[in-house]
Amino acid sequence: MGLITLNLKRVLNWNFIFMSAVAAIFGMISLMNFGDISENIVFGVDIKYFMLDGYLCLFIFFAGEISKDMLQQEKITKRIEWKLANGIKISSIVKENLLSLWIGTLILLFPLLLMISIRLPNLILLLGTYFLILSVLYSAFINVLILWIRNMNWFKSIPIFATLLHILLVVLKCGIFMKTNNVWVLLLFSPVSIIVLTACGLCLMTKERIVSSYY
Length: 215
Known about the structure:
Blueprint: H1 2-11, H2 14-32, H3 34-37, E1 41-42, E2 45-46, H4 47-66, H5 71-76, H6 79-85, H7 90-108, H8 110-119, H9 124-148, H10 158-180, H11 183-204, H12 207-211
Antiparallel strand pairs: 1-2
Helix pairs in contact: 1-7, 2-4, 2-8, 4-7, 4-9, 4-10, 7-9, 9-11, 10-11
Transmembrane segments: 12-35, 47-66, 98-118, 124-148, 160-178, 184-205
Keywords: Membrane, Transmembrane, Transmembrane helix
Protein name: ABC-2 family transporter protein
């Protein structure tokens, strides 16, 4: 809990409040006409799933942004090297930073999530659970990506890269769904893909790769 508290203190600033306001504005715009389009089907997929993926894009992008003050900062300041030298496992570093990043981003998106729960109470249970599961998985993926990157100048591209990856997965799952018409494709394709990518990153990760990072 100490690390979580420390990380949250690092990110709770005026920039954090600004990003939260931006996310709320985007959410407000998307919800304004929801009643008119809630039954629409786009490319054979209920538009509610597209909206959910849009909110996930916001989560991923802002998680990448606030990770600059969390794991990215620890890697830049060589604190991770100290942890590895003291026998802390790579998976443990990912786990201890995952919760900080996840909670921090949820706090940032709280106004947006509150609006969604009020505007769409019937969807909050199923899609809300799906959102929380995927947000945890993407938090882990972003942390693994931070550790994987050697050239730390690329850190600034993490929000865009992770968001584009999610968009690619959305396109792929919609394409597969149109071919199979199987709703499980919509629900399982993204989480399974992120789990596989994160697991592969962890399996291929070495301490030598992490400590050889440079600017």
